Amino acid sequence: MSRLSLTNRLFLRLLPALLFAALICWWLGPRLHQPVPAILGGLLLLLVLWLAVHHATAPLRSLLRALAGLTASYRDGEFNVGVHWQGQGEVGELVDAHQQLGQVLRQQRQDLVQRELLLDTMLQNTPVAMLLIAGGGDGEQRVVFSNLAARKLLHGGWKLEGQRLATLIASLPDPLQVALDNDGDSVFAVPDADSDEEELYHLSRRSFQLNGRPHQLILLRLLTHELRRQEVLTWKKVIRVISHELNNALAPIASLAHSGAELVRRGKAERLPEVLAIIEERARHLEGFIRGYARFAKLPAPQLQTIHWADYLTGLQQQIGFACQLPARSLTSRADPGQLSQALLNLLKNAHEAVADGHAQVELRIGAQAGWIRLEVLDNGSGMNEAVLHNALLPFYSTKRNGTGLGLALVREIIEAHGGRIALNNRAEGGLCVSVLLPA
């Protein structure tokens, strides 16, 4: 019987009651000639039917109550309860579906707990100080999450959750107060209480909506150690480059000086001019190398003047060749003519050197673009690979045999001192495009 469907089970449970009711009707039929007894017989028949249905559906009603309780347990987050049912059929399938749902929910909750534990472990142990702030106005903003780094930096290691942001800020050093009060990202320095040095921090802030309320995620990253490491690496690179250039220049000079002295001792002075010319050439190369470093290190602030680009580029074409469609004379900028010439001449010279056979096609394009002046220097060389594109603007990086790695770095320094930007990209048709944006 346990394998019968729900309809068949109910039919078999109701069949005895129906037979009993039919027997009563058969027995009472010839005897009930009055209306009232007939009504009583009908009521008796309904009562028997109700009792039969109530008895037949009792297990099903009990099961439905159990399923309702099971669903309530799922709603409350309790997935360790279950329902037992011996039958199979439709009801058995329903019970099995609930049991499988409970297993899935239990597994999902365990996975969620594990992920939350992993995420919390990562957030608590990251060196970046993290604050999650909830609320609208400054007086209403409260800390709803903080990791260990944030507690150590902002509150001596004590818990921050629930504190008002305004109260927390009031107890912090002035630079940190200013950074947290202002909107947006910032870099600031905080005096170190244990030494005379300063600790440099970067603050980033992102706003979003969570459960219908405004929230802010604030990240405070200590930059001092990374900057010191990068500073040491930079100094090592500088020393390496300078040592290389000095050795390349001084070793031939010392060798040639010895050779000149030997020629004088042997009375062969006719070769001395050649030896002295090479010594002079190497000395001038060394002088130019040192002058380039000094110029990069002591770049003055730009002295801004109004530049009419049509006249300016015409004068630049007299110093180095390039193709250019001159703009209208109304196109102007505020810039330092000397520094800008130095930057553009470096770019144009590099464009000419990009083609080894001397058939360089160098073009300079200029135009206005949403409050900017856009300059593009294009060549027909072989372009740059990804590694060179990524590092070409860094100081001391060079792919040339005798390069100092300061040319493009100096160009970048000049452009950024004017409030502009520079970017390098390979052209689809071959060659390199150097894009410069300057304020209009």
UniProtKB/TrEMBL annotation:
Membrane-spanning segments: 12-29, 35-53
Keywords: Kinase, Membrane, Phosphoprotein, Transferase, Transmembrane, Transmembrane helix
Predominant localisation class: membrane
Localization per Swiss-Prot or TrEMBL: Membrane
SUPFAM superfamilies (alphabetical): ATPase domain of HSP90 chaperone/DNA topoisomerase II/histidine kinase, Homodimeric domain of signal transducing histidine kinase
Catalyzed chemical reaction(s): ATP + protein L-histidine = ADP + protein N-phospho-L-histidine
Residue intervals of the HAMP domain: 54-110
Cited InterPro entries: HAMP_dom, HATPase_C_sf, HATPase_dom, His_kinase_dom, HisK_dim/P_sf, Sig_transdc_His_kin-like_C
GO cellular component: membrane
Superkingdom of the source species: Bacteria
Domain Histidine kinase, residue spans: 241-440
Enzyme Commission number: 2.7.13.3
Enzyme class: transferase
GO function terms (MF aspect): phosphorelay sensor kinase activity
Coiled coil: none
PANTHER family: HISTIDINE KINASE, SENSOR HISTIDINE KINASE
Protein name (record): histidine kinase
Naturally occurring in which organism (per UniProt): Stenotrophomonas koreensis
The organism's taxonomic lineage, starting at the top: Bacteria, Pseudomonadati, Pseudomonadota, Gammaproteobacteria, Lysobacterales
